[in-house]
Structure formats: structure tokens, C-alpha cells
Specification:
Rossmann fold, alpha/beta, 381 residues, globular
Length: 381
């Protein structure tokens, strides 16, 4: 019999917008293997959010936003609300599974799970080291967050990660026992595994980019490389999904800004499917990207990918297997990869097929759920 697991996440657990869609697919997969007793939303009432914003205020919008993100008011409120909602379902589940490090349920009276577990795509150590959005790493609120994360991790029985890249960080940066940190992987956020087109038209390069935080995900380098590619291949196209075209950005030949596509609606899914069917390559040369699910989805569609060497992307793609790896912030390398894929349809097709096989073998949410259940069962007292 599968263990009784209660999940906690900061949003509607089954909304395909929560945690970039991973929450929906994770908890659905745990349901599918008979392990999920329930999943709850830890968000606190709006009043707590107003207090957190007021307490975090600074004249600098960047610092204000940063202090709000790491607000102790939000942390305490969400920990209490999530813990109480989990307790109302079952005060003593086999495993309490929190998504991320934001929650600390030790102070919730009457909640006595047999195992306290977590699931992560990244942590503060990796974020601080590989992305520069933190204004001052020595600021009191950042140092407080380091202590908070360490305390949360020390109090867990099992830490499950999406990648080996992240597993090493928990051990090396937070001093966690290697025996309690397990890589369970991630899955492609698709409702049903897509069937790629029987015959993809490789004659014209069509580059697909998907990502909202486009500064972090390398869109500048993609656009730079694409301009030069189009000078060589006049029919080439670049399709950008996620951000709206900035008001100060003029129209560029061959570039289409699709903006945000709502995956919670059937027509949104259909549009994403069309773009993946008609593209000939997928580009995401991120500066920092813990486990970009859009990369797995592109590979599932048999698209050869161009990804950076940052984060867990080498684990996902395999250099020369499902695509090509390039250094971050290197438009010349992105252009070289685009040229290579655009100039060799047979190799692009082979990479796309290898990438799909890699996803099916290593990156399905069913597989994640099965590995989670095995890790939980091995540690139940």
C-alpha cells in the first residue's frame, strides 16, 4: 500500500499556473500512483500580504520587491495556514511534502507527520551564486533567509531534488546529510505526451523561445544571434512566447512576439502545440535556470534544443544528444548552434528523436512520483 502523502504549495495545487505548472503535474502523478491523500494551498489571507508589503517597504523598488519576497511575515503566515489546512485533513500522515523551502511546519500544534519531506528545483545558495538579481548578499534580510533555509532543511527527514546539480548544493552549501538528499528528477509539463509531426519541414529555420523572465533566460542573445542568422537565411523566423514586445522595441523582420499564452485553457494548449510542431529548433541559453520545464517539453516534441551550460541543463539535454550546449551570455555561440542545426536537417532530426527518448526514459512526472514514493517508503519508521 502506498504511503499517505499530503502536499503543501504556495498556490492552488492543481492550477497549471502554480509553480510554473509543476505543482499540477506532480500532485496529479502522486494521485496516479495512489500516494496522494490531499494537496493544500498555503497562501494566507490578503491582510497578511498587505502587512508584509508595508513592512518590507524601501524607496528602491528592487530592494522593496526583494525584501517582500523574503518576508518573515509571509513565511510565518503561509507556514501556519498551510500546516493548519494539512492538519485538518490528516494530523498524522505518512509524509508531509512541502514544495520549496518557504514553509516551516514545526510550530503547527497537532501536526505530526511520520516524515517531513520537501521537493526543490533550486535553493538560495544556487540562486545567489548563479544569478545577480540579489542587490546585496550581505543585507540583513538575505542573511536571515540563509538562516531560515538552513533551519528548514535541518528539520526535514527527506529532501528531494530535481537534479544532481541541486543535490550537491544541499550537501555542500547547507551541510545536509547525503543520505537524506535524493534526486528524483522532474517531468515535462504536458497533459498528454505529444506526438510530434510525422514530417517536420526543416527547409526554413524557425526558432522558438519560451520564457517570461527573458533577461535571465537569454532572449537578448537569442535575438542577437537570430538577426545574423536571418541575414544569411532570409526566410528564418523567431517566435517569442512569454513576454510582450517592449514598447521601445521596434518591429524586427522575422520576429513574432506571441506574448503570454494561457495554458489553463484548451486554446492556449493548442497554440503552444502548434508552435512546437512547426518550429525547427528551441533556444533557451539561460544565465540561470534550475530546471526549465519548457526545455523538456520542447524535447518531448522532438525539437533539437540550444541550451546553456548553466544549472541542470547539461543533465537534461546531454551535449550533442538532445541538442547543443553553449556558454551563457554568448551570442556568438548561440549563432553557431543555430547555424549548425539549420544547416543539417538529418542531425537536427536525430537530436530531436534522441531528446524525446531521453525525456521518456528520465523525465516523466510518473517517474518522479514513483521515485518519491520509493524514497519515502525506504525512510518510514
Amino acid at each position: 500500500m502506498a504511503p499517505r502523502v499530503i502536499g503543501v504549495v504556495g498556490g492552488d495545487p492543481f492550477d497549471r499556473r502554480t509553480w510554473s505548472g509543476a505543482s499540477h503535474h506532480l500532485f496529479s502523478a502522486l494521485q496516479g500512483v495512489g500516494a496522494l491523500e490531499a494537496a493544500v494551498d498555503a497562501r494566507a489571507p490578503a491582510a497578511y500580504d498587505y502587512v508584509a508589503k508595508a513592512a518590507a517597504f524601501r524607496p528602491s523598488m528592487r530592494r522593496w520587491r526583494e525584501r517582500y519576497e523574503f518576508s518573515p511575515v509571509r513565511r510565518r503566515a503561509m507556514s501556519r495556514c498551510g500546516g493548519q489546512r494539512a492538519r485538518a485533513i490528516d494530523p498524522a500522515p505518512d509524509a508531509l511534502l512541502q514544495v520549496g523551502a518557504y514553509f516551516d511546519f514545526h510550530g503547527v500544534a497537532g501536526l505530526r507527520p511520520r516524515l517531513r519531506c520537501s521537493f526543490h528545483d533550486s535553493n538560495l545558495a544556487r540562486f545567489s551564486a548563479e544569478w545577480t538579481s540579489i542587490e546585496d548578499a550581505q543585507a540583513p534580510h538575505i542573511q536571515r533567509e540563509w538562516r531560515n533555509e538552513r533551519r528548514v532543511f535541518d528539520g526535514l527527514d527527506l529532501i528531494m531534488t530535481m537534479s544532481e546539480w541541486l543535490r550537491r548544493s544541499f550537501i555542500e552549501d547547507f551541510g545536509q546529510d547525503p543520505g537524506k538528499v535524493v534526486t528524483v528528477g522532474s517531468g515535462a509539463n504536458v497533459v498528454a505526451f505529444p506526438e510530434p509531426p510525422a514530417q517536420r519541414d526543416w527547409s526554413v529555420p524557425r526558432v522558438l523561445f519560451v520564457g517570461f523572465d527573458w533577461h535571465r533566460k537569454g532572449l537578448a542573445e537569442v535575438r542577437d544571434a537570430f538577426r545574423r542568422l536571418r541575414a544569411e537565411r532570409p526566410g528564418a523566423e523567431l517566435w517569442i512566447v512569454g513576454p510582450e514586445r517592449p514598447a521601445d522595441t521596434p518591429h524586427e523582420p522575422g520576429v513574432t512576439w506571441h506574448g503570454r499564452i494561457d495554458r489553463s485553457r484548451p486554446e492556449g494548449d493548442a497554440e503552444i502545440a502548434r508552435l512546437h510542431r512547426e518550429a525547427t529548433m528551441f533556444a533557451l541559453p539561460s544565465v540561470y535556470d534550475p530546471m526549465p520545464n519548457v526545455l523538456l517539453e520542447a524535447m518531448a516534441w522532438e525539437l533539437p534544443v540550444i541550451a546553456s551550460q548553466a544549472g541542470s541543463m547539461p543533465e537534461m539535454v546531454g551535449d550533442g544528444v538532445g541538442g547543443l550546449l553553449v556558454p551563457a551570455r554568448d551570442a556568438d555561440a548561440v549563432l553557431a548552434a543555430m547555424r549548425e542545426l539549420a544547416g543539417d536537417a538529418a542531425r537536427s532530426r536525430a537530436m530531436g528523436q534522441a531528446g524525446r527518448s531521453r525525456v521518456l526514459e528520465r523525465f516523466t512526472w510518473r517517474g518522479v512520483a514513483e521515485r518519491m514514493v520509493a524514497a519515502i517508503e525506504a525512510r518510514l519508521p
